[in-house]
Amino acid sequence: MVYDYAQFPDARGHFGAYGGRFVAETLMEPLRQLEEAYARLKNDPDFLAELDRDYTHYVGRPSPLYHAERLSKAWGGAQVWLKREDLNHTGAHKINNTIGQALLAKHLGKTRIIAETGAGQHGVASATIAARLGLKCVVYMGIDDVERQSPNVYRMKLLGAEVVPVTSGTRTLKDALNEALRDWVTNVDDTFYVIGTVAGPHPYPMLVRDFNSIVGRELIGQSRAQIGRLPDALVACVGGGSNAIGMFHPLLAFDEVAMYGVEAGGDGIATGRHAAPLSAGQPGVLHGNRTYVMADDDGQIIGTHSISAGLDYPGVGPEHAWLKDIGRVNYVSATDTEAMAAFYELTRGEGIIPALESSHAVAHAKKLAPTLGSDRHIVVNLSGRGDKDIFTIAKREGISLT
Amino acid sequence: MIRMSRLQQQFANLKAQGRKALIPFITGGDPAPAHTVALMHALVAGGADVIELGMPFSDPMADGPTIQLACERALAAGTTVSKLLELVGEFRRDNQHTPVVLMGYLNPIEHRGIAAFAQQAKAAGVDGVLIVDLAVEEAPEFAPPLKAAGLDMIFLLAPTSSERRIRAVAEAASGYLYYVSLKGVTGAVTLDLAAVAHKLEEIRRLTALPLAVGFGIRDPATAAAVGRLADGVVVGSALVAEIEQHAATPEVLPALLKAKLGALRKALDEIAQ
Q1: Within a domain: residue B64?
Q2: How many domains does chain B have?
Q3: pLDDT, tens digit (0-9, with 9 covering 90-100), for A183-202
Q4: Least CB-CB distance to B161: which of A20, A21, A29?
């Protein structure tokens, strides 16, 4: 079956059986207004020029495509390249999306933005752009994540954002999302909800994808210039899946490019302690969209486990659910241990400290590279830098930094 | 003539009597499944015309902290969808006249299989279903098995609902419409009566379905004020807060809920004349 990937989602926000708009009535009209505003602005030359200007001069785009030669040699197979989203302002791909959404908020006349965050990268990116545009910013964060990502919490506060610790449910990203949705439904007149991943009700999965697709669009040009052709494989970590879809989407139509989305395997899929709904979940409805979710026998959403707060989420973007079902993207997983090993290898081998999230993608590249010849090319989306994780890693090593 | 559902019959009777429907909400299985049936009977004794029974969900994103905590208590006490349906069946053994509406989120229902759920709910004595996160646009894939089983489909309307949406929702709904009185989650405190009155007028021009109003109704005065505008009044978080406060001594709850609801009943009946 041949798909025209640009035609998804359909007019109702569906990617095949997934996506849609599963929210309480109060939000339906605001979502329709957002969809309309986006449909108008995404082709507006002034809006696009403003976005491009920010990508270039504020984020520092394009991000480099870096040939990790020492890693490639060490792994003995394909050439490994890193798309350096870690070099963006604020240290991750998240800013690509927050800039776009904050500009939408500005055009809609909203004065306050809210966001949910797991690892804190999206919270920092939201607080950053709020400071830049003079918007009030409130960030919801599970209290467990507040503790394990304290440097980012402080960063958000420095930037003038209010960080609200969320104590309900499993006290992680999914609960932060619930709380942000509650804020939005209460303050919908003056507030714009900046969702940080390609999940949530339509049109969010589409607009977050579109804003992150700058990564894949740049990669096409860079790859042709530096490799001489498109890569053989793309590898990206998948929590909600925004960095992965950003890199994959512009290349979906190129059948020769294989794609791997790497979920958080936690202690191992077999243990049940993981955050891999595509690998071990089933279709359901969570946070406004139909997708793969992790649920118990009674349909209750279950707690997830990952060393990386940014992947610790029981759902996944609906477009990924669809890409899995049609077989276009391979979804695999890497355990905490594998991600940690990859973290050290990249840090010591190339002098690049990756985020624990991105380390999952590096871990899969390590498995994939030796199966391919040295004339083949793998691009890993290095979605974020690891400074925020040094406390988590030190703790794992039994070292106290304070 | 088409036979009316228990829910439709109830609203028709109330209308004939010039009375307003009092619709309490409690979360099923809160604080534990063993107490739910007794609480439901207490609500009827306190003057309930319809009972909305919450199906606990791990991620109740449209609810405030009071009902989120109720969900957590109920789930921790082992409440499942099967258990909840059993409880409704048990309630029905002693009460065949009070309609019961299950109110919850889609995932546990879809997980069970929507057709199986519909059959089992009907068999247990459930009259209607309100799925908070099932907007009318997505309903065509989920509502038919529920309707085919003879369940009324209750939908929400909100201050933000456009005329186009009100028409679509009224078309898909049966039993009654649940108007969310404010922009916010359950248990919120501020209620703008003038705004509610204005919106209800708009809705009434577009549908003949009974209109129940909920969110932010916690005392007899507010219930009476809203009762003047609507066909029914939903009270939820105020009752659930009582359950929260006395969760450790659940034996006192039936009398407390009966008294609390009784005060609302009295206020509503006073405006009826």
Answers
A1: yes
A2: 1
A3: 999 999 999 999 999 999 99
A4: A29
